[in-house]
Design a protein that fits this description.
mainly beta; two-stranded antiparallel ribbon; 6 strands
Length: about 70
């Protein structure tokens, strides 16, 4: 099965952050958070309770990132 995905994060100009909670995919349940930092977007994936960061990266505009929850 699939174990990762590629994304090109892009927040609307008026937004500083966005989140998808309790995403079920790849045999796991995780949260996906985007936050504006400088001229990029931080992509953070957490799972479990208490939340444990399994992926974190800052992506420049137009760049893609491979995410493996």
């Amino acid at each position: 099965g699939l174990e990762s995905f590629r994304m090109r994060p892009n927040l609307p100009t008026a937004w500083d952050r966005a989140a998808l909670r309790r995403v079920r995919a790849f045999g796991a349940e995780f949260d996906l958070e985007l936050a504006r930092v400088g001229d990029g977007v931080r992509v953070t994936v957490t799972e479990g309770v208490p939340a444990r960061t399994v992926f974190s990266s800052v992506v420049k505009p137009g760049e893609s990132v491979d995410v493996r929850p």
